[in-house]
Specification:
CATH class: Alpha Beta
Strand order of the largest sheet: 3-2-1-4-7
Order of helices and strands: EEEHEHEEEHHHH
Low-confidence stretches: none
Number of helices: 6
CATH superfamily: Ribonuclease H-like superfamily/Ribonuclease H
Radius of gyration: 16 Å
CATH architecture: 2-Layer Sandwich
Number of domains: 1
Shape: globular
Number of strands: 7
Strand content: 15-25%
Oligomer: single chain
Distance between the termini: 42 Å
Helix content: 25-40%
Amino acid sequence: MGRRIPVYGLDIETDTRVDGLDPRRSAVVTVALAQPGLDEVFTGFEPDLFDELDERLAELPPGVIATWNGAAFDLPFLSDRARRWGSPLGLDLRFDPTMRLPHEPLPGHRGGYRASWHQHGHIDAYRLYRADVGPALRVSCSLKSIARLVGLVPIEVDRGRIHDLSREALHAYAASDARLARVLTERRWGTAARYVDRVDTLPALDAAS
């Protein structure tokens, strides 16, 4: 059996002093990247944060980036904020008109995206669990709910007041969410592998179009 490709969990946290949900108004304050045995947190001035994150992803062995609702939130949010600063990213977003969202799309967007980033594929693990576990068990498919369901212990905070967290608490929270996305993807890799985005089947479009 061949060696499984690495899974990298990714999570962003945004400035909630306004609302934290609109990339036209709120900044990215932290990005966590969870690797097997190592969690990294990127923070600070947005252009520097984006440069450091993009450089790190370019250095890592080819793998799959796992997010939770990243198709509709984390990745287009990052793309919008990076574009605002003129920061180039190796993130390739492809709008997928067939992707159904259970909520309103990110402000300024029409829906969800398939993605790749440099040499890495992408999987939105939320969509994996919402496709089968949610309907079968009639449970919420929020990251924390699924984590508790399988015996993991997430860090929980008031998401509406991210700006009130200490630096240490913010880093721990973001790293926890990124790690959960990675672990929940790895635990179901046999099925998850079929959910890795295929961007080659979709036209290259501007992420905000």
